[in-house]
Amino acid sequence: MGHFAECGEGRHRIWADVIEAGDDLVMFIGGGERPHIGSISISEKGGEAFSVSMPEHKDYIVSSDAAKKISKATRRRCLVVVGIHIEGASKSDVEKLLENSDKCINTLLRKFG
User: Fold this and answer.
1) pLDDT tens digits for 14-31?
2) What does the alpha-carbon distance between residue 58 and residue 77 come to, in Å, rounded to a whole number?
3) Over the stretch 27-77, which tens digit does the pLDDT of each residue have?
4) 104, 16 Cβ separation under 8 angstroms
5) CA 64 – CA 105 distance, rounded (Å)
6) Angstrom distance (rounded) from CA 61 to CA 59
7) For helices 60-74 and 91-111, what crossing angle results, to 10°?
8) Backbone dihedral region of 32: left (phi > 0), alpha (psi from -120 to 50 degrees) or beta?
9) Quick one: which of 6, 8, 15, 16 has its CA closest to 93?
10) Domain boundaries, the chain
């Protein structure tokens, strides 16, 4: 069973999709102008997140936060893949993307009860 959320519009649109893999959760968060694979983070049932990023990518900021929040709230292992990109993003763009990412994560947390 999957769970989906999206927040924001245009190049600041972020979407998140979660699938259940047995007792575990796998989440993809994408958005901006070009979704891609920028980082992965995994958290064990509410523990700290272990993250790996592609060179020069900062997507781990979102993937680490999401993995920790989702696994803590659900008490399940959670793997998060994130790829968000806006070419030449301004500080304001980054703030909107982070805000919309957080909104998507919180929307999904509500769906999990």
Assistant:
1) 999 999 999 999 999 999
2) 22
3) 999 999 999 999 999 999 888 999 999 999 999 999 999 999 999 999 999
4) yes
5) 12
6) 5
7) 20
8) left
9) 8
10) 2-111
* Tokens encoding 41: 């983070």
| Alpha helices (H) along the chain | 60-74, 91-111
Q: Does the model's pTM come out above 0.90?
A: yes
CATH fold of 2-111: Ribosomal Protein S5; domain 2 (3.30.230)
* Cα(24)–Cα(52) distance, integer angstroms: 19
With a cut of 70, say whether residue 10 has pLDDT above it. Answer: yes
CA dihedral 81, 87, 88, 93 (to 10 degrees): -60
